[in-house]
Specification:
7-stranded mixed beta sheet; 6-stranded mixed beta sheet
């Protein structure tokens, strides 16, 4: 190419508005689009969000009509605007969004609205950007994502295509998988619920059914609370390997306590010791463990990045379940439903595993092996619900475009097993392509690199960070050579 032709090509690119495609329009994708739209770019990028749902910002977590599904942190700590942490609360007040929900406001003054209210809030923030064309909402899923020269070709399920300069992957984790052979054995059972977060998933469960819930985390708690609201009175067994139940919120307001960065830990063992010492110190002053865990969460990304890979992997293998039940707390309304079910003798929480299963006339016969014991229990259930958490290992196989990117060497699993491999700039890392600056990972799929990325406000903070990285890439494209996006 001659010098004049190259100059003409550069001028042509400068005139064309750059295109940013965001795959996934849940909170992570919607927040990335929102913050990118606020950036001062010239020319302003075309932002396309691929999301099959009608609205942006709801995703799987907040697109629920179940009245028992509530946000699990106070509304005052959830906001799309990083510098206005009370923005969601003010939006609720302005729109009377909890009208008719008398249980949303707790006696301590904290507000725990239903989860769809937060989804409505994020969607309301994005809708003006969609209306004025700043953000394009494509109501479809991406089937294929292919490298096309220096750009990306996105092919939708119906065959429609779009070209983008930068792509942000903001999809969610794949659904949980039932352990052992249950998925195959029960796939045609009328009351087998492999994905309880889907709308109407629990409708087939009858009021007196004996229910086995596999898992003891937040989703398990939501299932039990939802069944209670539906008038379910049958016995429920919730089983998980350790039998750990998600904890509730602090009995009174507490500030974050401790400091885990002044003298940081470089091993999992030291980190646990530091946390335990901080909890003992808090207890001695009349506080609870909640403030200490809040501080670990606040400093979580820095703590995680200081740990060597082997220590991160050790935490994932041995400590993650204990962290999850303390970090991801149940809403007070949900905690009350669980406590009531236990006190009434309807809910039994077991530590163990399923040793064997067979089905006779829709009755599910299970042999349960208790943890650290040779004892087994023989139980019969009418319904089985899977709440084991995200299937991290199946991320790359969960969607065709992810599998194709992995096959072509642009993506690989993070060595911790928590998500997709990426740099600290959230750029995708693959075994063949290495670092790809024009392919970024937003949200929980970047958890392996960043650590704490499963709850708000960390999700919105990371989305804003990804948006800032994208803005820098776009600016480099205008001011510098095209290889910035290779």
């Amino acid at each position: 190419m001659t010098l004049s032709a190259r100059s003409e090509s550069t001028a042509s690119k400068a005139k064309r508005r750059p295109v940013v495609a965001i795959i996934g329009g849940g909170v992570s994708g919607a927040a990335a689009a929102f913050h990118l739209a606020q950036s001062d770019q010239s020319p302003a990028p075309t932002i396309i969000v691929f999301e099959p749902r009608d609205g942006l910002g709801r995703g799987l977590a907040y697109d629920t009509a179940e009245p028992a599904h509530r946000i699990n942190v106070p509304a005052a700590r959830m906001s799309l605007l990083l510098d206005e942490p009370d923005h969601f609360v003010r939006w609720i007040d302005a729109h009377s969004a909890t009208s008719g929900d008398a249980d949303a406001l707790r006696p301590d003054g904290n507000l725990f609205p239903r989860r769809n209210v937060f989804g409505d809030y994020v969607n309301a923030m994005l809708q003006p950007l969609v209306d004025d064309g700043t953000v394009q909402h494509r109501r479809s899923a991406v089937a294929h994502l292919l490298r096309d020269g220096q750009r990306w070709r996105l092919i939708e399920e119906d065959g429609a295509e779009a070209m983008a300069d930068i792509v942000v992957i903001a999809t969610s984790h794949p659904p949980p998988l039932a352990p052992g052979g249950l998925q195959t054995l029960l796939k045609n059972h009328p009351r087998f619920v492999p994905e309880p977060t889907r709308a109407g998933a629990l409708d087939a469960i009858r009021p007196s059914d004996r229910v086995l819930v596999i898992g003891n985390g937040l989703t398990s708690a939501d299932v039990i609370a939802s069944l209670a609201l539906k008038g379910h009175t049958g016995a429920i067994t919730a089983i998980s390997r350790r039998g750990l139940r998600s904890r509730g919120h602090a009995p009174f307001p507490q500030d974050p306590a401790g400091d885990f960065l002044a003298d940081p830990a470089f091993t999992a063992r030291t980190l646990v010791r530091n946390i335990r010492n901080a909890i003992r110190g808090a207890t001695a002053t009349g506080l609870t463990w909640h403030g200490v865990i809040d501080q670990v969460r606040a400093q979580g990304q820095s703590i995680w990045q200081l740990l060597p890979l082997a220590e991160r992997q050790r935490i994932v293998r041995h400590l993650r379940p204990y962290w999850d039940v303390h970090r991801f707390r149940v809403a007070p309304q949900v905690e009350a439903a669980l406590n009531e079910a236990i006190s009434q003798g309807r809910l039994e929480i077991l530590a163990g595993s399923i040793a064997g299963t067979n089905v006779e006339d829709e009755a599910v016969h299970c042999t349960l092996r208790l943890r650290r014991s040779r004892e087994t229990l023989e139980r019969i259930y009418d319904a089985v619900v899977v709440t084991t958490g995200p299937g991290h290992g199946g991320i790359l196989a969960s969607q065709p475009f992810l599998a194709e990117l992995a096959q072509s060497g642009y993506l690989e699993l993070d060595p911790t097993g928590l998500g997709l491999s990426c740099t600290r700039n959230s750029e995708a890392v693959g075994p063949v392509a290495g670092v790809t600056p024009s392919l970024l990972i937003a949200g929980p799929l970047a958890r392996g690199t960043f650590g704490e990325l499963m709850g708000l406000p960390q999700v919105t903070e990371h989305a804003a960070f990804v948006a800032s990285v994208v803005a820098e890439r776009l600016q480099a494209t205008v001011l510098g050579p095209a290889q910035n996006l290779l």
